[in-house]
User: Which sequence fits this backbone?
C-alpha cells in the first residue's frame, strides 16, 4: 500500500480528505479537470458548484469565519483564477484562514501565453499570506500540508496553491505529512512574561480604563477569555466591526461599536481613557480616524496581537505583547486575580458616570413613528424574530453598518462581513458558506440592492443545495453609502448613485425557484420576517424591504477626522 | 536615516519578488538591493539599503520578517559593520587624460580591467561614498558608462548572521 503511486489529482483529493475537509467550493475548467475527475469518484467531502468563482472563495471564507476551520476553494486557471482574486483579497484583509487551489497550464506551457494562462502566484502575491506554484508532483502533498499550516497558524490568512495540469497527471507515492516545520516560519504564541506583568499592573492602576477588542478575538477563539477579563475588571469595552460578538453586545459594560459609525460613548471613551487595552485590533483608519487627532489625548496603551507588524503601525503603544490572545489573556487574568491591588472604585465610578452621560445622548435613536420603513427598524425586528440567534452575513454599505449597530451580537462567529476590503457581493455567497457549515441554523444575508446584484447569480447555487437563507434586502433605491457621502461632502451631487431600472426582485427570486416578498409598510416588517423564518423556514426567502431612501448612518466621523468629531443625527 | 538591512531567505523562485513587491506595495524606499546564494545553496543573502524614520524601519523589518520565505532579518546599521560596493566605470582615456586617469584610478585603489585605444574600464570597490567620490573627481564628460552592484554588508567581529 505504501508503495502505491497516485496521480497528482488523486493526491490533491487525498490530501483534502486527510486534512479533514468536508466542504469544497469551486468551479471546474480545463486545468483542473483531472482533479474534478477524482472529486467525482470520492465521497469524503462535498463539492459545492457555484456560479462564479468569486462566490466560491467568499463561501469558503465565510465557512471558515463561522466555524474556525480552514475554508477551501478550487478554481481553474486564467479567468477562474482572476475571478477568485477579489475573494482572496477579501479574506486576506480580514485574516481568514483559507486554502485556494488554482489550476495552472501545464509546466512546459508556462510563460508561453497559453490559453487560460495567468501568473496566479504573481497576481495574488500582495493579497495572500503565502502562495506556491507546485512544479513537481513529489512536492504536492507537503505543499498542501504547508498551505493548511500557514493558513491557520499565527495571524491566519489565505494561501494559494497553483497546480499545473501536468502535475495532476504525474505519479508518485502518496504520503500526507502529519506535521510540517519550516525554519523560516515560527509564529509566536506565548507572550512575554515581563510585559504581561506590566500590563496587568497598568490595567489595575487605571483611572479611566477602556478595553478595545477586534477581529483577533474572534479569530483567536478568545471571546470567553475577553469576557472573563472584562467582567473581572468591570471596565467599559468596545469592539471594532470585526470583533462584534466577542463580548455580548446587550451587556451594559459594552459601549457599542467604535469607529467611523461607532457610538458616541465608545468613541469618546476611546479618546478620553487613560489606559487602553487593545486586544486583536489594529487601530485602522475606520476605527480611530486620524492618528494625530487620536494622539492628542495622553493615554497609555497595552496592545496584544499575534502579528508583531500590527503593533505600533499606526499608533505607538507602551506595552506591546506579541502572542496568542487566549494564552496571553489567561496569564493577564491570573495576575489580575492574584494582585492585591484592586481597581480604584471611586475613579471608576466617576468614569462610568461620564460614560453614562455620553450614552444618554442615545446616538442610535431614529424616527420610529415614520410611515416609511426605517432600515434600522428592519434590523431590530430581525434581531427580535431570530432572538439574536442567527448568523448574519452582510454586503457593504449602509445596510452593513445598520446590521452592525442594531443586531445585538452576543456570540462570536455570528457576524460575517467584509470589514477590511469592503467587498460588495460578499453577503450572499458568504451566507451559502455559513449555511453549508450549519445546515440547521438561521442564516440571514443583510444586503442592499447594489450589493446583492454583484453576486445574485448564486441564487441558483442556493436552489441546487436548497439553502434556506433569508435575504434581507434593505432596498432604498440608492447606493446608499455613496449617496450619504455625496450628500455630506459633495453638495448633494448624486453622481451615479441612484439605481433606476432595478429588477423586480420578487419575480427574480421566483425565477430562481425561491420565495420573494416585497414589504413597503412598517407594520408588515415583522409578519414578513416571521413568515420567512416560520412558514417558509425551509425555503430561501428574498425579502425586498422598500426602505426610506433618505436615511443616513449616524453617528459618522468624516474620513480624516478624529474620534470626537462625530456628525450626529 | 539610511539603513542597511541584511536578510537570510529561502533560495526559492519568487522570493526576490516577494521582497520587491513588499517595498513597492507599502511605498518603502529601496536605494539598492543585492542578492546571491550563500555557502548553503538553500539560502540566499540579501542586502537592502533603504531610508526611513525609526518607525518606518521598524515596520519594514517587521513586514520582512512576516514574509514566509524570510528566515532572518538584521539591521546592520544597528551596530558596527562593513559595507562594500563594486563599480565598473568606463571612461574616455585619450592623450593627456590617459595618464591622468591611470593616476586617479591608483589613488582610489582602482584596477583597470580593460583597455582600448580610447577607453579604460576601471574596477572600484568600497563604501558607496568612495565610489561617489571617484565619480566626482573625474571630469563628467569623460565618463562613458557606469555600473554599480549596490552595497553588500556584513557585521564586524563576532557579529554573525547565521541560522
Assistant:
Amino acid at each position: 500500500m505504501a508503495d502505491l503511486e497516485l496521480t497528482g489529482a488523486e493526491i490533491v483529493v487525498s490530501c483534502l480528505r486527510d486534512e479533514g475537509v468536508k466542504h469544497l467550493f469551486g468551479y471546474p475548467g480545463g486545468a483542473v479537470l483531472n482533479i474534478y475527475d477524482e472529486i467525482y469518484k470520492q465521497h469524503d467531502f462535498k463539492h459545492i458548484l457555484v456560479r462564479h468563482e468569486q462566490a466560491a472563495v467568499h463561501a469558503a471564507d465565510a465557512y471558515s469565519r463561522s466555524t474556525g476551520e480552514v475554508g477551501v476553494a478550487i478554481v481553474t486557471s486564467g479567468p477562474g483564477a482572476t475571478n477568485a482574486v477579489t475573494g482572496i483579497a477579501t479574506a486576506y484583509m480580514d485574516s481568514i484562514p483559507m486554502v485556494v487551489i488554482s489550476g495552472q497550464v501545464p509546466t512546459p506551457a508556462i510563460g508561453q501565453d497559453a490559453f487560460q494562462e495567468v501568473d496566479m502566484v504573481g497576481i495574488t502575491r500582495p493579497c495572500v499570506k503565502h502562495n506556491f506554484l507546485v512544479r513537481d508532483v513529489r512536492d504536492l502533498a507537503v505543499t498542501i500540508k504547508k498551505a493548511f499550516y500557514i493558513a491557520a497558524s499565527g495571524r491566519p490568512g489565505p494561501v494559494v496553491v497553483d497546480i499545473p495540469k501536468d502535475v495532476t497527471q504525474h505519479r508518485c507515492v502518496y504520503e500526507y505529512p502529519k506535521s510540517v516545520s519550516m525554519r523560516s516560519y515560527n509564529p509566536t504564541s506565548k507572550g512575554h512574561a515581563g510585559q504581561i506583568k506590566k500590563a496587568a499592573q497598568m490595567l489595575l492602576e487605571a483611572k479611566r480604563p477602556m478595553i478595545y477588542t477586534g477581529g483577533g478575538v474572534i479569530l483567536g477563539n478568545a471571546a470567553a477569555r475577553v469576557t472573563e477579563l472584562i467582567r473581572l475588571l468591570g471596565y467599559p469595552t468596545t469592539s471594532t466591526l470585526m470583533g462584534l460578538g466577542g463580548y455580548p453586545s446587550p451587556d451594559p459594560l459594552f459601549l457599542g461599536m467604535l469607529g467611523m459609525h461607532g457610538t458616541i460613548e465608545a468613541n469618546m471613551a476611546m479618546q478620553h481613557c487613560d489606559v487602553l487595552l487593545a486586544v486583536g485590533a489594529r487601530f485602522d483608519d475606520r476605527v480611530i480616524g486620524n492618528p494625530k487627532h487620536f494622539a492628542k489625548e495622553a493615554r497609555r496603551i497595552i496592545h496584544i496581537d499575534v502579528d508583531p507588524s500590527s503593533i505600533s503601525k499606526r499608533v505607538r503603544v507602551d506595552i506591546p505583547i506579541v502572542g496568542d490572545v487566549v494564552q496571553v489573556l489567561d496569564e493577564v487574568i491570573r495576575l489580575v486575580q492574584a494582585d492585591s491591588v484592586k481597581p480604584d472604585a471611586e475613579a471608576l465610578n466617576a468614569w462610568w458616570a461620564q460614560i453614562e452621560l455620553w450614552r444618554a445622548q442615545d446616538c442610535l435613536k431614529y424616527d420610529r413613528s415614520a410611515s416609511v420603513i426605517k432600515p434600522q427598524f428592519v434590523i431590530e425586528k430581525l434581531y427580535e424574530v431570530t432572538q439574536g440567534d442567527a448568523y448574519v452575513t452582510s454586503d457593504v454599505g449602509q445596510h452593513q453598518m445598520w446590521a452592525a449597530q442594531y443586531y445585538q451580537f452576543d456570540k462570536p462567529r455570528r457576524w460575517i462581513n467584509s470589514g477590511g476590503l469592503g467587498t460588495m457581493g460578499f453577503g450572499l455567497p458568504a451566507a451559502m458558506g455559513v449555511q453549508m457549515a450549519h445546515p440547521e441554523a438561521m442564516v440571514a444575508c443583510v444586503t442592499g440592492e447594489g450589493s446583492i446584484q454583484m453576486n445574485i447569480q448564486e441564487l441558483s447555487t442556493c436552489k441546487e443545495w436548497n439553502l434556506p437563507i433569508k435575504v434581507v434586502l434593505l432596498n432604498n433605491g440608492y447606493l446608499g453609502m455613496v449617496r450619504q457621502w455625496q450628500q455630506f461632502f459633495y453638495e448633494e451631487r448624486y453622481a451615479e448613485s441612484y439605481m433606476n431600472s432595478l429588477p423586480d426582485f420578487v419575480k427574480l427570486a421566483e425565477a430562481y425557484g425561491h420565495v420573494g416578498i416585497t414589504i413597503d409598510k412598517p407594520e408588515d416588517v415583522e409578519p414578513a420576517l416571521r413568515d420567512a423564518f416560520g412558514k417558509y423556514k425551509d425555503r430561501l426567502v428574498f425579502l425586498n424591504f422598500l426602505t426610506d431612501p433618505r436615511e443616513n448612518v449616524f453617528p459618522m466621523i468624516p474620513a480624516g477626522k478624529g474620534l470626537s468629531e462625530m456628525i450626529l443625527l | 536615516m539610511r539603513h542597511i538591512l541584511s536578510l537570510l531567505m529561502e533560495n526559492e523562485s519568487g522570493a526576490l519578488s516577494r521582497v520587491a513587491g513588499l517595498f513597492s506595495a507599502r511605498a518603502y524606499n529601496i536605494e539598492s538591493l543585492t542578492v546571491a546564494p550563500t555557502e548553503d545553496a538553500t539560502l540566499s543573502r540579501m542586502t537592502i539599503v533603504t531610508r526611513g524614520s525609526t518607525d518606518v524601519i521598524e515596520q519594514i523589518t517587521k513586514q520582512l520578517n512576516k514574509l514566509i520565505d524570510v528566515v532572518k532579518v538584521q539591521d546592520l546599521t544597528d551596530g558596527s559593520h562593513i559595507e562594500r560596493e563594486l563599480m565598473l566605470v568606463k571612461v574616455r582615456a585619450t592623450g593627456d587624460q590617459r595618464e591622468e586617469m591611470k593616476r586617479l584610478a591608483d589613488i582610489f585603489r582602482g584596477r583597470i580591467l580593460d583597455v582600448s585605444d580610447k577607453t579604460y574600464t576601471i574596477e572600484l570597490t568600497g563604501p558607496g561614498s568612495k565610489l561617489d567620490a571617484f565619480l566626482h573627481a573625474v571630469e563628467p564628460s569623460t565618463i562613458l558608462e557606469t555600473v554599480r552592484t549596490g552595497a553588500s554588508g556584513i557585521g564586524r567581529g563576532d557579529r554573525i548572521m547565521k541560522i
Notes: Chain B has a mean pLDDT of 96. The longest strand of chain B covers residues 81-92. Chain B is about 30% helix and 40% strand. Chain B touches chain A at residues 9-10, 13-14, 17-18, 21, 25, 55, 58-59, 62-63, 65-66, 68-71, 163 (CB under 8 Å).
